[in-house]
UniProtKB/TrEMBL annotation:
PROSITE patterns linked to this entry: COBK_CBIJ (PS51014)
UniProt protein name: Cobalt-precorrin-6A reductase
Keyword Oxidoreductase: yes
Pathway assigned in UniProt: Cofactor biosynthesis; adenosylcobalamin biosynthesis
Cited PANTHER family: COBALT-PRECORRIN-6A REDUCTASE
Top-level taxon: Bacteria
A Pfam match: CbiJ
Highest classification ranks of the organism: Bacteria, Pseudomonadati, Pseudomonadota, Alphaproteobacteria, Rhodobacterales
Keywords: Cobalamin biosynthesis, Oxidoreductase
Membrane-spanning intervals of the chain: none
Keyword Ligase listed: no
BP GO terms, sorted: cobalamin biosynthetic process
Enzyme class: oxidoreductase
Length: 243
């Protein structure tokens, strides 16, 4: 049986590793190529966009995939919506691996916004902001009306931070709570801006914000496509077993 695994997350790496041990399966993992040096993935890997909807549909058809596991990031809304539609049209079983979102605990000061557009309204001119949304969000938010922005990214940037009040910070997750506390302290951060990605790996920054009493601007997830969901790696493996 042939499986296409859309990757780009921790869950995708776990699924590739676990399915790779199953001699009944041929698994191809697909990466967008967003990170210059991605963490290793088990098995056959293709890298780069498909080149659009028609090309992706042809790729799935021509390779005779029997099922598609969409383990892309909860904020990778375009690829998920498109893949679900293609699979429905081709009658190829599709499952989206969608980890539960984060929720605030007692004492947390989270300011919820529905998209990046809502972020500037939650900030004040004297604030030093830690942007954990990734560099892709910077263009969507424009120049934040604050004293300073520190925006974390995985790869070294080819160009400086695009606004005069900010800078990049290079770092590859996961980070421990202690690392995050130290980073926020050293940079004199007043507020954390992040996306509701969910998952254990990224929660350390929220625990650090809690420990330091920092408010958090939390960007809500975009709408997800219809269709079958797996909240965990185990649930995705069960889906393959049922297939
Ligand atoms: N958005 C985030 O916050 C975030 C965070 C961590 C990791 N990621 C990962 O980074 C990748 C890109 O994220 P995004 O938000 O830019 O996605 P997106 O907006 O949904 O997709 C943009 C384009 O990237 C290509 N693409 C995305 N995922 C792909 C995959 N697994 N294999 C092949 N092509 C893929 C497609 O290009 P074509 O149109 O050319 O086919 C797609 O149209 C995703 O795979 C996602 O899992 C995203």
């Amino acid at each position: 049986m042939r499986i296409l695994l859309l990757a780009g997350t921790y869950e995708a790496r776990q699924i590739a590793q676990r399915l790779g041990r199953d001699g009944r399966l041929e698994v191809t993992a697909s990466l967008a190529g967003a990170t210059r040096v991605p963490l290793p993935l088990d098995g056959e890997v293709r890298v780069g966009g498909f080149g659009g909807q028609v090309e992706q549909q042809n790729y799935i058809m021509n390779n005779g995939f029997d099922g598609v596991i969409d383990a892309t990031h909860p904020f990778a809304a375009r690829i998920s919506a498109r893949t679900q539609m293609i699979c429905a049209a081709l009658n190829v079983p599709y499952v989206q691996v969608l980890r539960p979102g984060w929720a605030p605990g007692p004492g947390d000061d989270w300011r919820m916004v529905t998209s990046e557009a809502g972020v500037p309204g939650q900030l004040a001119a004297n604030m030093r902001v830690f942007l954990a949304t990734g560099p892709g969000s910077v263009a969507a938010m424009g120049r934040l009306p604050v004293a300073h922005v520190l925006c974390r990214r995985i790869d070294a940037a080819e160009t400086p931070y695009p606004h005069d009040n900010g800078e990049w910070l290079i770092g590859r997750p996961p980070f421990s709570v202690e690392d995050e506390v130290e980073t926020f302290r050293q940079a004199g951060v007043d507020i954390l801006v992040t996306k509701n990605a969910g998952g254990a790996g990224g929660f350390a920054k929220l625990e650090a914000a809690r420990a330091l009493g920092l408010p958090v601007v939390m960007i809500d997830r975009p709408p997800q496509p219809p269709g079958e969901k797996a909240e965990t790696v185990e649930a995705a493996l069960d889906w393959v077993e049922r297939l």
